[in-house]
Design goal:
- The structure holds 2 protein chains of 2 kinds.
- Chain A is α+β, with helices and mostly antiparallel strands.
- Chain A has 11 helices and 16 strands.
- In chain A, helix 6 packs across helix 7.
- Chain B folds into 2 domains: 87 residues, 2-Layer Sandwich (Alpha-Beta Plaits), CATH 3.30.70.20; 313 residues, Aldolase class I (TIM Barrel).
- In chain B, the strands form 8 sheets. Chain B has an 8-stranded parallel sheet. Chain B has a 3-stranded mixed sheet with strand order 6-22-23, covered by helices on one side.
- In chain B, helix 11 crosses helix 14.
- Chain B is globular and about 90 Å long.
- Chain B starts with 8 loop residues before the first strand and ends with a strand.
- Classes of the chains: A alpha+beta, B alpha/beta.
- Chains A and B meet through helix 6 and helix 10 of A and strand 9 of B.
């Protein structure tokens, strides 16, 4: 990772500071749609980025390979690719591998070599652990040990496309008009550092979880050191990475629902908790006692997604904007209402969620795993 | 034997201002001032003066000034006045030199070489007068994770948390034993802790029954002398603290001189009146870590696992390894007391030379517990020379959950750090058991001053947190990105786990 970290954060700062524009769009019936509206919407928030980062994640992207892990990997040099290919061949059955199709005419900055692989863990190798755990370990290994190789997308039936450029240019570069999916999340970036490593752009993905983020976590130091205790090492030095690892820890390892994770990230204030009924009070008190180190402090708006759901969340005093909208079966989250209005002028409903209040959209085909009985119930979409 | 020790302080009295009201004579417990009726003048015995400022503050016409004795030995960088005076004292007495309060040497304070961050542009700072900023701190062991289950559409918490202390500010009053300080001082601390929603520590001298009603805000201490330890005492407190060591005197026990052991003190400490109360250097039932585990669990058994058990050690060279062992032995809270930690009485040579700075101990203990994946299993309280809200913020960002303040609390009540607590004659009515002197400390006034201090520091902490864009104290805890060092070596920065300013 050293090589890529040096590119991403050349001055070795605590973390890379950035502000951004976010847009997410999800068809709740799982119907796939093209790039037209997502790109139109994120391009409308051009002023929120500065051309130093743009990216997309598309769920429902590879229906032909829906049960295979799709790796998108950036390489700084051919040696990194050789090493990675060897590691992949050792540990995985590589079903398909190709150089990512790109449009070299697009206005982007110093594109690295990018490859796409569809893989399955080798049967004997992954015997005593879940496939996810096995894949995670290998991804971490490639990212930290090889030097100059970076797996930036590792889920199934989904994929991340990102780089240094405005979002509309990145879309052109990756020929996104050729893809379809039922959920698109887009990101335009305004970092305060120099143009750098494509891997530093957003979205940030780990297995099925993908996160885009607008903000700066004042709690970064606390969050990072807590995650280190659980074996997550923040190599990218971005807030977004912290959010992604925290989601993985809470939902996959600690088996908590996304609602609970949202309440850990942006818990109620103590004066609110003190006024609750005893059971609710005990619950939130325990949550803050146990997971206080994962409270995300400072300004943020995030959109996080996995196969069956998309969630929007802001910090508990809402220092970054987030708006939600719905039209028939199409659900929207955006930094700006104007971007939603542009692609869906006649919304059934549009609202700005309150500070710290998660908005969760789930595929209609999926039964909600669990719910929390609280005040945000009426805002939740199942 | 003629004493060669010269007065440390010289008293200057402006006879034009002096009205001969004799307040100074009344107030001084060291017999410094006396009236000369023949000349109608108040005179002073300079050699008795400890520079406590009682007379200065209470003189109605502000006629008194105390100065450092200007008569100095021949200038010598190595053989300081202190070194020479100490040798003379020992040549005359043949004993160890006693002192009070914490190490007063210039070279151990790291807080002053650590600076805090604030938000600019990319992150809005928060104004605590407009937005909530939370200081509530829970102290005790936290589980690795919570297990939840859904029952009839409700979330049910399956994990049972260990008992916790809830403090409304991350500042607690440090252990000051009854006997070392007066009843009124103890009462003032208890009242202030209860009013502000924090805790006082009983210290190792037991607890007067009159303070039992404040038990929910008292941490009761169990030290090597076991003074005042009874089932009632253990059960009345909000938490228990096993005192292994003290920053002012690591490796040695306590000594309350028999002069201070009055009827009341004797009753509570369960020893005869007028006998010295000696705490052994070690706990004689703890010669190793597994013995500590037994005492921790004996106390947990005695209190039915309803209260957190803290273990306090002096910060010494291998604190990190010891702290790890303490957590594994079952301590819910570990207390680290640094080289600046104060005392009512300690040999001066120990106070000034044994132990390590709390900043370094804290940084290495916090990191070690994280490396071992057990930081959540115990809270860390640090103490030893916390002087301001900035020290508190830096301590929490380095990794502490909360701090104990002892000296700062005493100063709030009137203490001027004259370092003569061991004489039992504290003219401020604090470090004394003399009923006539202790009457000077009005518990209502003293409690009010303590609450004011907590309020002022808490507001300042909120200001600093708001500046960093942090609105809950848990997001400051261990957040070393908010700290930068100045004037530190690479090794110091590495141990503190912080970057150099400008980096």
């Amino acid at each position: 990772m050293k090589a890529t970290t040096a590119l991403n954060n050349p001055y070795g700062e605590d973390k890379v500071i950035e502000a951004c524009g976010l847009f997410g769009m999800m068809d709740l019936t799982g119907r796939r749609f093209g790039s037209k509206y997502p790109i139109k919407a994120i391009s409308n928030m051009h002023e929120r980025g500065n051309g130093l980062g743009g990216g997309y994640v598309i769920y429902g992207l590879y229906p032909k390979h829906k049960d295979d892990y799709a790796f998108h990997i950036m390489y700084l040099n051919s040696e990194a690719k050789e090493k990675t290919d060897r590691l992949l061949a050792q540990n995985f059955d590589v079903l398909e591998a190709e150089e990512m199709p790109v449009n070299p005419k697009a206005n982007v900055w110093k594109a690295p070599l990018i490859w796409r692989y569809f893989v399955q863990p080798k049967k004997r190798a992954a015997k005593n652990q879940s496939h996810d755990e096995y894949v995670l370990k290998n991804v971490m290994r490639i990212n930290t040990e090889i030097g100059g190789a970076f797996v930036f997308s590792s889920g199934k039936n989904m994929g991340v496309f990102k780089g240094v450029g405005f979002p509309e240019d990145i879309a052109e570069y990756f020929c996104l008009d050729e893809y379809e999916g039922y959920m698109w999340i887009c990101h335009g970036r305004f970092p305060t550092n120099t143009p750098g490593w494509w891997g530093g752009a957003q979205p940030f993905n780990i297995l099925d979880w993908t996160v885009v983020h607008n903000g700066e976590l004042s709690s970064y130091g606390t969050n990072r050191r807590y995650l280190e205790m659980y074996g997550y090492y923040c190599t990218m030095q971005t807030d977004t990475e912290v959010v992604a690892y925290a989601l993985d820890l809470l939902t996959r390892k600690h088996k908590l629902s996304i609602e609970v994770a949202a309440k850990i990230f942006a818990p109620p204030f103590w004066f609110e908790i003190d006024a609750m009924a005893p059971r609710e009070r005990d619950f939130y008190t325990a949550l803050r006692q146990c997971y206080g180190s994962l409270l995300l402090n400072g300004p943020f708006a995030i959109i996080a997604a996995r196969t069956w759901e998309m969630i929007g969340l802001t910090d508990r005093v809402k220092l970054r904007p987030l708006t939600a909208g719905i039209k028939d079966d199409m659900f929207y989250l955006s930094s700006e209402e104007a971007a939603i209005r542009l692609v869906a002028p006649h919304l059934d409903r549009v609202w700005s969620p309150r500070a710290g209040e998660p908005v969760i959209a789930r595929l209609k085909t999926v039964r909600p795993l669990e719910t929390l009985v609280t005040t945000w119930e009426n805002e939740k979409l199942c | 034997m003629k004493s060669y020790v010269e007065p440390e302080f010289i008293i200057e009295r402006d006879n034009e201002k002096c009205t001969r009201c004799k307040v100074c004579i009344e107030q001084c417990t060291y017999g410094v001032h006396y009236y000369d009726p023949k000349n109608d003048i108040v005179r002073s015995r300079d050699e008795n003066c400890v520079n406590c400022h009682r007379c200065v503050v209470f003189c109605p016409t502000k006629a008194i000034t105390i100065k450092k004795n200007p008569t100095q030995y021949t200038e010598n960088w190595h053989w300081t006045r202190e070194a020479i005076t100490d040798i003379k004292k020992q040549a005359e007495t043949g004993g160890a030199i006693l002192t009070g309060m914490g190490c007063d040497k210039s070279y151990y304070t790291y807080w002053d070489r650590i600076l805090l961050n604030a938000s600019q542009v990319t992150n809005p700072s928060i104004d605590p007068l407009r937005e909530p900023i939370e200081l509530r701190t829970y102290l005790g062991a936290k589980p690795d994770k919570l297990e939840l289950e859904m029952e009839n559409g409700d979330v049910v918490l399956k994990t049972k948390l260990a008992p916790q202390l809830c403090a409304e500010t991350p500042i607690l009053f440090a252990a000051l034993s009854y006997g070392a300080v007066s009843f009124n001082a103890h009462l003032a601390l208890a009242r202030a802790a209860a009013e502000f929603g924090t805790f006082m520590n009983s210290g190792e001298g037991g607890l007067d029954k009159r303070l039992y009603k404040y038990g929910d805000h008292i941490i009761v201490q169990v030290a090597s002398g076991r003074f005042g330890v009874s089932p009632d005492y253990l059960n009345v407190g909000a938490a228990l603290e096993i005192k292994i060591g003290q920053g002012a005197k690591p490796g040695i026990g306590g000594h309350l001189p028999g002069e201070k052991v009055t009827q009341e003190i004797a009753q509570i400490r369960m020893i005869p009146v007028g006998t010295d109360a000696l705490s052994p250097a070690p706990h004689h039932d703890i010669y190793s870590i597994e013995d500590l585990r037994q005492l921790i669990y004996a106390l947990k058994e005695a209190t039915d696992y309803t209260k957190p058990v803290a273990v306090k050690i002096a910060a010494v060279h291998n604190s990190a390894a010891i702290a790890s062992g303490m957590v594994r032995a079952g301590a819910d809270i570990i207390v680290l007391d640094g080289v600046r930690g104060a005392t009512g009485a300690a040999p001066k040579v120990i106070r000034d030379n044994v132990g390590i700075p709390i900043e370094l101990a804290l940084a290495s203990v916090d990191q070690r517990l994280r490396d071992e994946g057990i930081r959540n299993k115990a809270s860390i309280i640090i103490s030893g020379g916390i002087r301001s809200s900035a020290d508190v913020v830096k301590a929490i960002a380095l990794g502490a959950d909360a701090v104990y303040i002892g000296t700062a609390a005493l100063v709030a009540m009137g203490c001027t750090l004259c370092q003569k607590c061991y004489t039992g004659k504290c003219p401020w009515g604090i470090a004394t058991t003399d009923p006539w002197i202790s009457k000077r400390l009005d518990p209502d006034v003293a409690a009010g001053r303590l609450v004011n201090l907590l309020r002022a520091w808490s507001l300042e902490i909120k200001e600093m947190m708001g500046g960093m864009g942090i609105n809950a104290i848990e997001s400051l805890r261990g957040n070393r990105e908010q700290l930068r060092g100045v004037g530190l070596t690479d090794t110091e920065l590495k141990i503190l786990g912080i970057k150099m300013a400008g980096e």
